Amino acid sequence: MHPPDRGTTRPPTLEDVARLAGVSLMTASRAVNGAPYVSERSRQKVHEAQEALGFVAHRGARHLVTRRTDAVALVVPVAERDLLRDTNVAAITSGAGRTLAGTGRQLVTLLASTERERQQVLADVKGRSVDAVLVVAPELLDDLPRRMEATGMPVVATGDPATVRALGRGVVVDVEASVAALVAVLVEGGARRPALVAGPEESSLTATQVAAFAAAVAPLGVPVRVVHGDWSSAGGEVATAALLAEDDRVDGLAVLSDTMAAGALRALRRHGLRVPQDVRVVGHDDSAAALHTDPVLTTLRVPFVEIGARLAELAVAALDGAPPRVDVLATAIVRRGSA
Questions:
Q1: Which residues pair with 195 in a beta bridge?
Q2: Do domains 14-66 and 71-172+304-327 have the same CATH topology?
Q3: How many helices (H) and strands (E) does the chain have?
Q4: Do 163 and 140 meet the contact criterion of CB atoms below 8 Å apart?
Q5: What is the dihedral of CA 309, 310, 315, 321, to 10 degrees?
Q6: How far apart, in whole angstroms, are the C-alpha atoms of residue 133 and residue 125?
Q7: Which pLDDT tens digit goes with each residue over 302-315?
Q8: Which secondary-structure segment (H or E) carries 148?
Q9: Are 230 and 257 in contact (CB under 8 A)?
Q10: How would you label 313-322 residue by residue, b for 16+ Cβ within 10 Å and e otherwise?
Q11: Helices marked H in 226-257 — which ranges?
Q12: Could you state, in order of their start, the residue ranges of all structural domains in the chain?
C-alpha cells in the first residue's frame, strides 16, 4: 500500500485514508474510531492506510462515533480541604489512574461531600461526561450510587461490603476476618480486656466492624468496649481519653485507622500508660502515619492501591459487557513495635 503524493504542506485527512484503503468514508471513520459494524478485512485495510499516511484520529470524532469519552470518574465523599490529606483515597486514586492509563483512559476525581456536589456529580453522569464511575464509600453517599446506576452508567464501588454487594460491582475486604486479626494480635500479646476505637457511628461500615469486634472478643468473656472517633488524630485522642476515663483497665486497643491510632497513643501516654508494656495497640490501613508514631505502629495492611487498580479493571470490563462481580481482597497484619 503506497500513499499518494499530497505535496508537503497538507496533513492527511480521513478522506485520504478511505481512498487509500478503498473503502467508504463512513467505514473508514468507524474503523479508525473503534466502532462496531466493520469487517475485520476492512478494519485491517483502514489501519494499514492510516499507518502509511501517518493519520491520527481526532479525539472528538472518536467520541461522536463511539459515544465514549475515555474518562472514568472517581467519586469520593471527601471535602476538598481533606482530599490531599486522605492517604487511603490517594492510594486508590494512584492504583485506578495507572490502570486506566494503560487502557488509554483518564481518571477524573469528583467530590461529593455536600448535597450540591452530589447533584453536580449526578448531572455529569446524566450528561455522559464520563464512561463509568468508581465510588469510594458508597455507604456515605445516600442514594447517589443507585441514582447513577439508574442512568445506565457502570458503577463500581469499594467500602462497606453489604452496600457494595447490593450495587453488584466492586471491591471489598473481608471485614470480619480483618477485625478478628486485630483482636488476635492483641490477645496473642497478652491482652485480656481489649477495646475498639471505631469510626463514626452513622457509618454502616462502622456497624459491621463493631459487630465483628464483639464476635472476636466474645470468647474472652469481657464487656464489649467501643468508642467512636472521626478518623482524625485528634478524634482518636479524644475517644481514647474518654475510654480510659471510664475504664483504665483496658490492656489492648484496636484502632480502625492509623491516624486515629496516633492520637490514641498520645492519650495513653498522657494517662501514664506505656505501649506495649501496659497497653498493646494495633492500627488499621498501614498508612504513612503508622511509621511516624512512638512506638512504630503494628497495623493491618489494606491494599488500597490494588483496590484502586481492581476498581478500574472492573469498570473497563463492565464497558466491554462483562457481568457484575464483587472481588474480595486479603488484608494482612504488619508487626512493628506497638503490639
A1: 225, 253
A2: no
A3: 14, 12
A4: no
A5: 140
A6: 8
A7: 999 999 999 999 99
A8: helix 144-149
A9: no
A10: bbbbbbeeee
A11: 233-246
A12: 14-66, 71-172+304-327, 175-301
Q: What whole-number distance in Å separates Cα of residue 295 and Cα of residue 127?
A: 51
According to DSSP, residue 297 is labeled P
pTM for the predicted model, two decimal places: 0.79
Can you tell me the distance from the alpha carbon of 248 to that of 230, in angstroms, rounded to the nearest whole number? 22
E strand segments, 202-331: 225-228, 252-255, 280-285, 298-301, 326-329
Contact assessment for residue 33 and residue 61, using Cβ atoms and an 8 Å cutoff: yes
Task: Tell me which CATH homologous superfamily contains domain 71-172+304-327.
Answer: Response regulator (3.40.50.2300)
- What is the DSSP secondary-structure string of 122-134? HHHHHTTSSSEEE
pLDDT digits (tens, 9 = 90+) for 79-135: 888 877 888 999 999 999 999 998 889 999 999 999 999 999 999 999 888 999 999
**277 Cβ contact partners less than 8 Å away, ≥ 6 residues apart:** none
